[in-house]
Amino acid sequence: MRKHNFGAGPGILPESALHKTREAIIDFNGIGMGVMEISHRSKEFEAVLDRTKSLVKELLKVPDTHEVLFLQGGASQQFAMIPMNFLKTKAAYLDQGAWSSKAIKEAKNIGEVVVLASSKDKNYCYQPKGYSIPQDVDYLHICSNETIHGTQVKIFPSSPVPVICDMSSDIFSRPVDVSKFDVIYAGAQKNMGPSGVTLVIIRKDKAGTHGKKLPAIFDYKTHLDNNSLYNTPPVVSILVCMYTLEWLKEQGGVEGIEKINKQKADWFYGEVDSNPMFYGTADKEDRSPMNACFLLSDSSQDEEFLHATKKANIVGIKGHRSVGGFRASMYNALPFESVKMLVEVMKEFAKVKS
Amino acid sequence: MRKHNFGAGPGILPESALHKTREAIIDFNGIGMGVMEISHRSKEFEAVLDRTKSLVKELLKVPDTHEVLFLQGGASQQFAMIPMNFLKTKAAYLDQGAWSSKAIKEAKNIGEVVVLASSKDKNYCYQPKGYSIPQDVDYLHICSNETIHGTQVKIFPSSPVPVICDMSSDIFSRPVDVSKFDVIYAGAQKNMGPSGVTLVIIRKDKAGTHGKKLPAIFDYKTHLDNNSLYNTPPVVSILVCMYTLEWLKEQGGVEGIEKINKQKADWFYGEVDSNPMFYGTADKEDRSPMNACFLLSDSSQDEEFLHATKKANIVGIKGHRSVGGFRASMYNALPFESVKMLVEVMKEFAKVKS
Q1: With 90 as the cut, is the pLDDT of residue A324 above it?
Q2: Stretch B131-156: mean pLDDT, rounded?
Q3: In terms of domains, do A245 and A232 share one?
Q4: Which of residues 9 through 68 in chain B touch A, CB cutoff 8 A?
Q5: Is residue A138 part of a domain?
Q6: Using CB atoms and an 8 Å cut-off, which of residues 236-255 of chain B contact chain A?
Q7: Residues B96 and B156 in one domain
Q8: Mean per-residue pLDDT, A241-245
């Protein structure tokens, strides 16, 4: 029996991707070796890399100006690589939550940072808006979806400077105009695959323009010039991404999954808003369909509620250890049935308690 | 039918590790989720991380002065992180082959480098010896086994300065006195597991002594303080390492596998030395039991020999694209039977051709 997995990441993956992966472990495509045993320069892995890249490009309509890279180290490594590669004099950041704060900290280590706006005053329960973007910065850094606080940027700003975006927790959940970004990056372990691989989509002509002496491995140009094969890539992790994106394509791509994600979010937030035992912590207009943060009106019942969800085979709904409460992460692969089950438990909990 | 996989890495893994991994993909330990779907902060993964660390410590007899870390980016990332963390004024390197050269290049980017000795004059067919180690350098960097050129350091030098060692291609193949090294690092994809995870064994009191403003993620102290959980680790890759090290323990640990590795190497090099059709490229005293580089006496027969090996289900024996010829990588998990098969093909080839 599969769990209803609301974990924030590494999170639930499509069952079809898991079944295909399982088959690849001992004998990949009938070649007499498991996928973890083949060279990253073999024709078998070349085909995996090519197809995964093509799927990313197709699903996100990546324009020819941009290239798709598969790196390692997650978003945390990108927090450092972005300013290493692009911060020459000054960069602008939005302070949208725990992850943005980490990105800002790393950038400050490297150069001057202007924080254009922050929602820290209300514990990051909303997305900063109405800020103006200076013309004299190297780039603007945004996080599209704050996993910990459950908010999402609904409309990306028109910017006079290049925009760089951390899309770790909502990539592939909705259409995005890639041409508007110089760099998009995302740890794979939410909507794309397992932990251990990082997606980077970069404007090709911007890679290597830093004019610095960077270690080769931290220079995007190195990876661009070597088709993500400068160092040995995480072979099996990329294969799982391929299978996950194949599944996504079958769901109608990002346009198709966006509709399903909206249905799941509407169902869940509808219950949060109508059930007096619960309330959502994020401002309604900024709510993330990926990560829904909520509290019990009476926090002394937290343990009891958690127990009720466990009995219903629900896992991963405890809030991030830094904020507490609850969080239902509803990534692409989470079935509607799981959301229904959680809502049923919430209804039943209210009935018993009232 | 499993292939005889002589690939240089990612290379062959123990069948038992593959079988266990296969079982973990859809339902890990009966928890209703696959291993790639669980949080890196779950008790399930905590147990995996703890056990993998313990196995590393037990198998390599890691003293209490040292800690075991699991990072990402492979040895290539360590080439940069080592000088970032330890090169203050000057560092000494040995130029032992293609990989050392890359490490030297990255170190030069960061500070002054003294190359103590080089075997480049003879295309790296031997290990430099008899060099003297200056007292005024921050560290000496060594590569214990040159995967591309097929040579191995048999006796590590007594050093007046800290020694840092890239053991990517022979870690866990023989006992090593960890206490003699400040840092040992290794990409996992040869003797430890799949690509996507990097083992670092570091003297705890040396981490964070750089006195620089390093990005948090490139500072060993960050990972030491966070038990390798500063960023999301490559969960499934670490699990495969655990299963691989469990298998190694069953083989009698590094002491047991060293004997088997010696048998395999003796069998193979014995044929190379007695069969007039072939010759080894590395100096006999420096030959690596892990990677055996060899050429045909008549290179016009290369294709024919390759064809003969293919017919015998042998794969991965082409030499590195930078040096050509042939290379038989005989990592821990390669069965003796595979070496026997290759030797039989070599014998048969000589018979047919003479």
Answers
A1: no
A2: 98
A3: yes
A4: 9-13, 15, 18-19, 21-22, 25-26, 31-34, 36-41
A5: yes
A6: 236-237, 240
A7: yes
A8: 98
Categorize the per-residue pLDDT at B212 as very low, low, confident or very high, splitting at 50, 70 and 90: very high
Number of domains in chain B: 2
Cβ separation B10–A105 shorter than 8 A = no
Minimal C-alpha gap between A9 and chain B (Å): 6
Residue A334 burial class via C-beta count within 10 angstroms: exposed 0-12, middle 13-18, buried 19 and up: buried
CB contact under 8 A, B37 and A12: yes
Candidate from A72, A80, A195 with C-beta closest to B235: A195
Alpha-carbon Rg for chain A, nearest whole angstrom, is 21
- In this structure, is residue A99 part of a structural domain? yes
Query: Is B100 found in the same domain as B83?
Result: yes
Q: How far apart are CA A329 and CA A317, in angstroms?
A: 7
pLDDT mean over B39-68: 98
Chain B interface test: which of A41, A185, A232 (most B C-beta within 10 Å): A232
Q: How many Å apart are CA A175 and CA A62, to the nearest integer?
A: 11
The pLDDT of residue B25 is above 90: yes
> Among B5, B27, B26, B1, which residue's Cα sits nearest to residue B14?
B5
| Interchain contact A73–B (C-beta under 8 A) | yes
CB pairs under 8 A between A and B: 207
Bond from prior residue into A194 cis (ω within 30 degrees of 0): no
Domain shared by B195 and B265, yes or no: no
- Residue A282: inside a domain: yes
For residue A321, pLDDT beyond 90: no
Enzyme catalytic residues of A: 99, 166, 190
Q: Which domain CATH number covers A89?
A: 3.40.640.10
Asked whether the beta carbons of residue B237 and residue A196 sit closer than 8 angstroms, the reply is yes
ipTM for the whole predicted complex goes beyond 0.95: yes
Give the tens place of pLDDT for each residue, B236-255: 999 999 999 999 999 999 99
A1-17 pLDDT per residue, tens: 899 999 999 999 999 99
Which pLDDT value is given to residue A1?
85
Same domain, A116 and A149: yes
Give residue A354's pLDDT. 80
Q: Domain check: are B37 and B181 in the same one?
A: yes
What residue type is assigned to position B73 of the chain? G
CA distance A135 to chain B (A): 27
| CATH code: domain of residue B298 | 3.90.1150.10
B325-334 residue pLDDT tens: 999 999 999 9
Average pLDDT, whole number, for chain A? 97
CA distances to A203, A281, A333, B32 from B28, in Å: 39, 33, 18, 7
As beta bridge partners, residue B90 has B112
Tell me how far apart the alpha carbons of residues A109 and A96 are, in angstroms, rounded to a whole number.
19
Comparing A322 with B5, the larger pLDDT belongs to B5
For residue A66, what are the domain limits? 15-250
Same domain, yes or no: B188 and B56: yes
In a domain, B2, yes or no: no
The pTM (predicted TM-score) of the whole model is 0.98
Residues A45 and A174 in one domain: yes
How far CA B200 is from CA of A47, A195, A213, B183, in Å, comes to 31, 19, 25, 7
Please, are residues B55 and B114 in contact by the beta-carbon 8 Å criterion? no
B38/A7 CB distance under 8 A: yes
Which of the listed residues A199, A233, A250 is the one where a domain comes to its end? A250
Question: Among A233, A250, A267, which residue terminates a domain?
Answer: A250
